[in-house]
Amino acid sequence: MRALCAALAGGGDMTATPQAISAPDLAQLDRATLEMMAAAADEIDECTRVLKKAGLNPVGEVLKGQGKFVKMGHYPKGDVFDRETQSQYYYHAHREGEHGHFHCFLRAPGMPEDVAPVPECEGRDWPAGDKALAHLVAVSMDRYGSPIRLFTTNQWVTGETWYRGTDVMRMLPRFAIDHAHPSWPTNRWLTALLRLFRPQIEALIVERDKALSAHQAEDPDTDAFTDRTLETLSETALDVAEQQAAVRKLFKHS
Hints:
Elements: E1 19-20, H1 31-53, H2 58-63, E2 75-82, E3 87-92, E4 100-107, E5 133-141, E6 147-153, H3 155-158, H4 165-171, H5 184-196, H6 198-218, E7 232-237, H7 240-252
Parallel strand pairs: 1-7
Antiparallel strand pairs: 2-3, 3-4, 4-5, 5-6, 6-7
Helix pairs in contact: 1-5, 1-7, 4-6
């Protein structure tokens, strides 16, 4: 599949400060959601186990055989795409304080049938029809191949089609990479990570829309979607072990 082309030329400094989120109250989740997240916690442990047993990690798996790691390049080449679920991701780097990050998407054929791009998409040269796609979340990784942060981005960063946050949240359960290219454990790991941290991702999406609306209101003459001073819209640090422990405890007593 043709790789998505990020609009960044060199990843220059961005002046707008991304909106941080408060930690969601996991105790308010229903049992079905906790069960899903607990299963994801187990899946992450299993994927991490088999990778570590071979001295590997999720990032190394997507970079293997790809040649020199180049800033702004997409890894693996052509991205990772599941035709059945219409889920897609790639890994690249251009931000300070991380090794790189995964961008996760869902393409239009895999979305709920009743969702549609926001009216502001009309008249723009953005992906449309079956080529439309939504950016769900990005996952920052450290140099050891461990996740450290989740964040959302403005439209121009990935060249996505823009959907309402409420619709993007409905897409989250549909993200799944269910094949072995470039790595079965990495694909399973990333799929499970988005499930384990779904409450945080949903909160990030809410803040994403708030940040974009606030920026547009502050400067009505600027197109917020294409404003290069507005790159990261919301972000939060993550701790996999802490989230796993909290979810397992709540599920056990639910």
